[in-house]
């Protein structure tokens, strides 16, 4: 495993183009485009203000930079560096900006969710979508880029509109059986739309607006916390505040499995426990050595141990008086082959749980020494990368578990990570730096 | 008191008649009455001592006789002839003797009674103590009971208070629930109101924005882009809308079709499994009735069942494709029947097994038992042999370890090791042979080159000799004649002068040098038979047509280099990258040359 040198970035804005050739990073008001392989700067664009959001178009030809404070969006072309485009939303303000799947339209959500403005880069035409609902995930494009589902709120009722992305034709518009819709998501095959509420209610609509099924596990007010489709569209995983993950199947839309997150684990294959050890250096040795050794003093080494069962996972009791209590499954992700699912339970923030979807049981638990910030599956292989806000990168695969120290100077701390689409490299994002990690292609974990 | 009771009982028990007599007698003898009624008193004794005097002997005698008579004794005390104050001794003594006897008996009975009395008193005492103890116990339990009563009362009180508490809590809960409900309704109402307000505000805001004709809202672009699919946009028409719908339904349909196909596949798979299971079941069940032929009627019925079963199975298989509903029903039916049969069969087997267990071991079972034992014996023997072997081996090993082993075992063991070594060596030898063959090939190439070089050299020498001769001749007075004669037959090379040749040869090498270095470095050995490499390379420079064959050689060298690199890759990865890269780049450089 090799690491690149460290580059600057701001706002944790760095993304690899969808074709995997370029790496775009934002440094204050500058946008830097690099070649992923050589890391040489190919282009450098200067925006009008500090960039708050950046996104590649689907064809990797354009980059959108949004400056929410100024209500501005600037678009840059990779092929024609002198081509430019500036969209000003005016005094209405801007809270979110994104590409349409064809890469020729930009959807801007105005402040107060007043409307969504659709700008066409082909015709300069502008169109509005009114009444968008202000919720967690109110807008989703189908994976093939054909359809857009949008949650709307009119007269205190929830509606869903389905648009054809090609010409923004309204295909379907229907009222949903929800009190307060919180999110919607297309299935990967683009034929089923799942709608979720905070109160445990999951509605599944067909593309043509028919209600296929509803599912509710319980009636309490804190219900669904996270939803994820398997890449095969076969399963729908629902993480909830009762610390459980329920898996629905795609034929009957009934629950086929329920994964609980108990504090005492006694029925899994392996529990990997991260063990930190500080390098023992005696005082006289310290006085002899120079500063470089002293700096290595602060970096702790860690390794994984296999704990004998049963294992007690540290649990933090959430404060019931505060909003958004830290309890329940907040993150779940299927591996690219739909074989595994990784989950994180918020009141056991130091553990990642990996479940086997073939055997429908717990495969492994990774118990870290600090809180897990981010985890992501390799887009090609069943390999999970995670970070905990320290200077280490952790990898899990069915074969085992490793922890790797990022050899960057000056205490590089990994706050977030992103896989390259080939699965060969990994972008590690720190507070205001980033670093690329190249996987060894020969070593299979 | 005891004494008194004792006398009373003795009088009651033994001498009732005499007592009555005694009590009666005082009526006649008043003077003696008082004396007799109080026999134990001292005063009475003094009276008795004065019972018989000289004067009243006859009266005494009669009295005694009377008394004796009343006691049931023969009263034959007779006085001697009157006037003489003496008794007839024999009857008096007899009477006395009898009296003594009576007395003794009485004394005995008195003793017994005393004993009994003692016993009684002791039991009485015992009773009394136990009684007092029981009384204490009673007292204690009474006290306990009162205590328990007290605690019970307290608990009851507590219960009552808790019940009241519970009631209040329940009330509280109810109240809170109602509060929550009212709050919830109020909240939802408020939320709705707020949302309406917000919607109104939003409406107003957008209206205002539209009215203000916000000029800032704009898009600036250098030039418009083409559509990503390269097509031109369409007008929005009814036809387009219809086509959108059609497309949507098409995608839905395709999805449903895909899922249906998947389900069908799964279904077919399951059906296959089912059929197979059924077949196997039949296979298991069908031979069982013939085995137990002559059994009960149930079995024969079962046989018929299975026949019917098979028929129904056949039909079910046929109709399976025709009508799903029907087929499913039949399938489930047949499976149910077969399951029942299987269960019966298993039960029967169970019964048989239990029967067999209960039966005494028959001859049929004895024989395998014997063979079994024989087998076991044989195996034991084998194990013993094996153990001996192992022991011997261990001993040998031990001997070797003690370094005082004899040559034979040493040779044997060395043989073991050398065998392994030999294998490894063979492998290495093979590799070496391969390398050798490669080298041979190389060498052949080199010798060929050397031969050509020799030939060239000779030609060159000849040329030079010719040229020298020519020079020599030109220097000689008869030069003109020689030049004119040789200029026709001269080769192109010979025409050139020495410096010209030098420049032409020095032009080529700098370009080729890089290629040459990679080519020559891997060469590990130079044989003495072959011309030296310097000669070879000189030839190479001079002969342009050789480069193509050399290039192929280089390729192979690179390949071998790559395999070496792969081995070294495992040792150090970073180095490999660089070496790989360098080889690659060199190769690319060479391509235009050759």
From TrEMBL, chain A:
Domain of life: Eukaryota
InterPro entries membership: Centrosome-WD_assoc (IPR052778), WD40/YVTN_repeat-like_dom_sf (IPR015943), WD40_repeat_dom_sf (IPR036322), WD40_rpt (IPR001680)
Pfam family, one: WD40
Gene Ontology cellular component annotations, sorted alphabetically: microtubule organizing center; MWP complex
Coiled coil: none
Matching SMART domains: WD40
Name this polypeptide is given: WD repeat containing, antisense to TP73
Originating species: Oryzias sinensis (Chinese medaka)
From TrEMBL, chain B:
Disordered: region residues: 285-328, 480-530, 548-569
Cellular localisation: Cell junction, Adherens junction; Cytoplasm, Cytoskeleton, Microtubule organizing center, Centrosome, Centriolar satellite
Compositionally biased tracts (Polar residues): 484-494, 515-524
Pfam families registered for this protein in UniProt: ADIP
GO biological process: cell adhesion; determination of left/right symmetry; intraciliary transport involved in cilium assembly
Assigned protein family: Belongs to the ADIP family.
Biased composition (Basic and acidic residues): 305-328
Coiled-coil region(s): 184-211
Species in which this protein is naturally found: Oryzias sinensis
Protein name: Synovial sarcoma, X breakpoint 2 interacting protein a
Protein keywords: Cell adhesion, Cell junction, Coiled coil, Cytoplasm, Cytoskeleton
GO CC, alphabetical: adherens junction; centriolar satellite; ciliary basal body
Chain intervals with Low complexity compositional bias: 504-514
């Amino acid at each position: 495993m090799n690491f690149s040198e460290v580059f600057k970035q701001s706002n944790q804005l760095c993304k690899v183009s969808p074709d995997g050739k370029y790496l775009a990073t934002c440094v204050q008001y500058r946008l830097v485009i690099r070649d992923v392989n050589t890391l040489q700067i190919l282009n450098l664009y200067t925006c009008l203000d500090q960039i708050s959001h950046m996104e590649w178009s689907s064809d990797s030809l354009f980059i959108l930079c949004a400056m929410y404070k100024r209500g501005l969006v600037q678009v840059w072309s990779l092929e024609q560096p002198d081509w430019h485009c500036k969209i000003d939303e005016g005094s209405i303000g801007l809270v979110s900006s994104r590409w349409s799947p064809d890469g020729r339209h930009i959807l801007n959500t105005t402040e107060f969710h007043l409307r969504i403005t659709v700008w066409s880069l082909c015709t300069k035409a502008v169109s509005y979508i009114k009444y968008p609902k202000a919720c967690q995930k109110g807008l989703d494009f189908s994976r093939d880029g054909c359809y857009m589902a949008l949650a709307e709120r009119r007269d205190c009722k929830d509606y869903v509109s389905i648009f054809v992305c090609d010409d923004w034709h309204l295909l379907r518009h229907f009222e949903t059986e929800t009190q307060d819709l919180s999110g919607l998501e297309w299935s990967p095959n683009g034929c089923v739309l799942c709608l979720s509420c905070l109160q445990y209610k999951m509605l599944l609509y067909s593309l043509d607006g028919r209600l296929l099924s509803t599912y509710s596990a319980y009636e309490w007010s804190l219900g669904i916390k996270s939803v994820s489709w398997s890449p095969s569209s076969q399963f729908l995983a629902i993480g909830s505040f009762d610390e459980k993950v329920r898996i629905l199947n795609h034929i009957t839309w009934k629950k086929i499995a329920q994964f609980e997150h108990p504090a005492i684990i006694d029925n899994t294959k392996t529990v990997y426990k991260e063990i930190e050890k500080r390098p023992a250096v005696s005082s006289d040795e310290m006085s002899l050595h120079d500063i470089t050794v002293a700096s290595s003093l602060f970096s702790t080494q860690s390794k994984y141990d296999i704990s004998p069962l049963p294992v007690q996972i540290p649990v933090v009791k959430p404060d019931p008086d505060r909003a958004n209590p830290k309890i329940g499954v907040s993150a779940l992700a299927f591996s690219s082959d739909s074989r595994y699912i990784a989950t994180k339970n918020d009141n056991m923030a130091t553990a990642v749980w990996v479940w086997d979807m073939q055997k429908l049981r717990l495969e492994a638990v990774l118990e870290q020494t600090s809180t897990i910030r981010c985890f992501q599956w390799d887009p090609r292989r069943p390999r999970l990368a995670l970070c905990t806000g320290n200077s280490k990168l952790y990898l899990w695969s069915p074969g085992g578990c490793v922890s790797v120290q990022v050899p960057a100077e000056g205490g590089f701390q990994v706050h977030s990570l992103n896989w390259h689409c080939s699965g060969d490299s990994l972008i590690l994002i720190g507070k205001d730096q980033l670093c690329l990690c190249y996987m060894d292609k020969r070593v299979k974990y | 008191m005891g004494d008194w009771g004792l006398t009373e009982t003795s009088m009651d028990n033994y001498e009732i008649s005499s007592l009555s007599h005694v009590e009666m007698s005082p009526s006649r003898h008043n003077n003696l009455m008082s004396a007799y009624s109080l026999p134990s008193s001292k005063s009475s004794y003094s009276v008795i001592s004065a019972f018989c005097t000289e004067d009243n002997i006859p009266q005494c005698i009669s009295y005694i006789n009377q008394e004796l008579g009343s006691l049931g004794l023969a009263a034959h005390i007779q006085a001697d002839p009157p006037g003489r104050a003496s008794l007839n001794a024999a009857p008096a003594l007899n009477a006395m003797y009898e009296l003594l006897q009576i007395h003794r008996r009485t004394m005995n009975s008195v003793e017994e009674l005393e004993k009994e009395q003692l016993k009684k008193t002791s039991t009485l005492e015992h009773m009394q103590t136990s009684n007092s103890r029981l009384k204490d116990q009673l007292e204690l339990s009474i006290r306990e009971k009162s205590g328990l009563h007290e605690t019970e009362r307290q608990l009851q009180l507590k219960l009552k208070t808790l019940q009241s508490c519970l009631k209040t809590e329940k009330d509280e809960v109810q109240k809170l629930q109602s509060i929550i409900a009212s709050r919830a309704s109020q909240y939802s109402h408020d939320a709705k109101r707020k949302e309406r307000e917000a919607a109104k505000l939003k409406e107003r805001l957008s209206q205002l924005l539209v009215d203000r004709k916000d000029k800032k809202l704009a898009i600036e672009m250098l030039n418009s882009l083409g559509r990503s699919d390269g097509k031109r946009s369409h007008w929005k028409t009814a036809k387009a809308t219809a086509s959108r719908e059609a497309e949507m339904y098409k995608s839905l349909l395709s999805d449903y079709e895909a899922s249906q196909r998947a389900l069908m596949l799964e279904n077919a798979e399951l059906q296959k499994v089912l059929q197979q299971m059924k077949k196997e079941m039949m296979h298991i069940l069908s031979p069982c009735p013939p085995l137990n032929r002559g059994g009960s009627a149930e079995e024969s019925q079962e046989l018929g069942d299975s026949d019917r079963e098979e028929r129904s199975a056949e039909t079910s298989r046929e109709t399976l494709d025709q009508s799903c509903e029907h087929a499913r029903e039949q399938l489930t039916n047949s499976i149910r029947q077969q399951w029942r049969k299987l269960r019966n069969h298993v039960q029967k087997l169970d019964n048989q097994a239990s029967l067999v267990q209960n039966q005494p071991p028959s001859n049929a079972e004895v024989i395998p038992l014997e063979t079994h034992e024989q087998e076991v014996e044989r195996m034991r023997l084998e194990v013993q042999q094996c153990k001996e072997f192992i022991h011997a081996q261990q001993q040998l090993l031990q001997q070797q370890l003690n370094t005082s082993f004899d040559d034979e075992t040493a040779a044997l063991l060395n043989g073991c090791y050398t065998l392994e070594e030999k294998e490894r060596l063979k492998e290495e030898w093979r590799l070496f042979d391969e390398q050798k063959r490669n080298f041979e090939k190389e060498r052949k190439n080199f010798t060929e080159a050397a031969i050509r070089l020799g030939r060239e050299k000779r030609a060159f020498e000849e040329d030079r000799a010719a040229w020298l001769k020519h020079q020599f001749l030109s220097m000689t007075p008869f030069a003109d004649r020689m030049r004119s004669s040789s200029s026709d037959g001269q080769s192109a090379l010979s025409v050139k002068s020495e410096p010209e040749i030098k420049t032409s040869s020095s032009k080529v090498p700098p370009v080729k040098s890089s290629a040459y270095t990679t080519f020559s470095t891997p060469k590990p050995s130079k044989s003495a038979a072959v011309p030296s490499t310097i000669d070879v390379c000189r030839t190479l420079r001079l002969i342009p047509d050789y480069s193509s064959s050399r290039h192929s050689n280089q390729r192979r060298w690179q390949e071998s280099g790559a395999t070496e690199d792969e081995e070294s890759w495992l040792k150090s990865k970073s180095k490999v990258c660089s070496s790989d890269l360098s080889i690659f780049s060199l190769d690319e450089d060479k391509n235009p040359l050759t």
